[in-house]
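Hi, here's the filled form for the chain we discussed.

Project: internal
Contact: R.S.
Residues: 261
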Amino acid sequence: MPLITIDERLCTQEGACIDACPAALLKRGEHSYPVEIEGAYKACIRCGHCVAVCRPGALANDALPREGFEEIADLKTESDPLAFVMRTRRSIRAFREKPVPRTELKALFEVVRHAPTSNNTQSLWWIVTSDRDQTKALADLARRWMRRAYWPEIPEDQWPDDDPVLRGAPHLALCCAPEASRSSQVDAAIAVTHLDLLAASRGIGTCWTGVFLRAIEGWPPLLEALSLPPGQKVFGGLILGYPRHPFRLVPPRKPSAVDWR
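And the returned structure, exactly as it came back:
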């Protein structure tokens, strides 16, 4: 069953839909129009990014109802700016080359330090890469783990020269805390969520780094490169940078599942 339909009269071959797909289900086909890979319909996670990021509205995802998408331009921001950010925030996987200035990064963490922690321990701290070279060095280590863990049969010289873990982002922010504390996991999740939403409100794109965290657990060279103090652990993280492609639509979501008592 086909996954996408392309209106070639509208498509600009920009490739935003290809960059935005978290599962890499789209590629460039004849005349650079996007085409789906084999088995794309079954593998699609129904996030709607391919449709939402297409500025000319040339792409339709047959697994999602078109009427379920909302125009971001039609949403009101003044009455409830936090709700606007929460509805329009997207996971960004394609970034501009320009790094985020240190002053802007510092401003984010000046606010995020106010995130609540269990019993007011305030024991969280962060590792933040300053530029793309630092981030790429860590991404290369995680990429080596990913190849060995998931595709050990593929020879090193045949592995694609890309960054499936940190997506070429200029910055990586890792939230660290005492490993022995029972509240560290929850405290870090709260803090990373605060950072995620605040960054989105300021035009900075983010994406959670679950694969990178698994790589830390499974690849000693990566853990060594982070130089964590004894007793400390990475509990969460984001990649950050300026989005390469703006999103035009809010994808549909399931209705709230609430058991009212």
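Let me know if anything looks off before we file it.
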